[in-house]
Design brief:
221 residues, alpha/beta, two-stranded antiparallel sheet, 9 helices, globular
Length: 221
């Protein structure tokens, strides 16, 4: 199957695209886009990969579903388009960055600026029906993104994985902690952020590790 995705990822995932589950997944997704309102826009389904080629990946943030409201999702977890009101979890991420790195609160919630520095902003499920969270779960996306994590973890070294909340932690359970840095805490959602997300200092810890291992730190602004 010819998938419109950045070339290095197309090479890494070529075998996955030929598997029966992926064919079934794409058939389901195409039908959903035809009959329902689905986010993100079709050309942005693989935006996280297009903005962050395999060779550039030095950090991975794992989300769950795309945002399911209008004009929010554009293929990067936790990120929204320029000019869109920041969702609560993103607000808390920015608050932690402010406290951790003494940076001002950013105007834009568009995190392409992180992706272009090598941060893969990966949702476990890459599509969702409007106003229906979880509607595209258990259709095959999770198997696909598990393979993405597996490829990164096995073929690269010294990558920083951010696992916020139990869902992300289960998804990253098999990452080799001797080979990579794994940062875990509760989710930045308002329901849990005060129970360990605030004060986790993950952003400074990530940059310290990247510098220690010879990579350029991420500008988290």
């Amino acid at each position: 199957m010819d998938v419109n995705i950045e070339e290095s990822w197309k090479n890494k995932l070529a075998r996955e695209f030929e598997k029966d589950y992926f064919t079934d997944l794409i058939s389901f997704v195409r039908k959903e886009y035809k009959n329902e309102k689905v986010y993100p826009p079709g050309p942005l389904i693989f935006n996280a990969f297009n903005k962050c080629p395999f060779d550039k990946v030095k950090a991975v943030i794992i989300g769950q579903d795309p945002y399911h409201g209008p004009d929010q999702a554009h293929g990067l977890c936790f990120s929204v388009n320029d000019g869109v009101k920041h969702p609560p979890s993103l607000v808390n991420i920015f608050k932690e960055i402010m406290n951790d790195l003494n940076l001002p609160y950013p105007e834009s919630g568009n995190l392409e600026r992180w992706a272009e520095q090598g941060v893969l902003l990966l949702n476990a499920t890459l599509t969702v029906r409007a106003h229906s969270p979880g509607s595209h779960q258990k259709k095959g996306w999770e198997r696909f993104t598990d393979e993405v994590i597996k490829i990164i973890a096995s073929e690269k070294k010294d990558v920083v994985f951010f696992l916020w909340g139990s869902y992300a932690q289960k998804k990253g359970a098999h990452i080799d902690r001797e080979k990579h840095m794994v940062l875990e805490s509760v989710h930045p959602s308002p329901l849990s952020a005060s129970r360990g997300f605030f004060g986790n200092n993950h952003f400074s810890k990530c940059n310290e590790f990247l510098v220690f291992t010879g990579s350029k730190p991420v500008e988290w602004k």
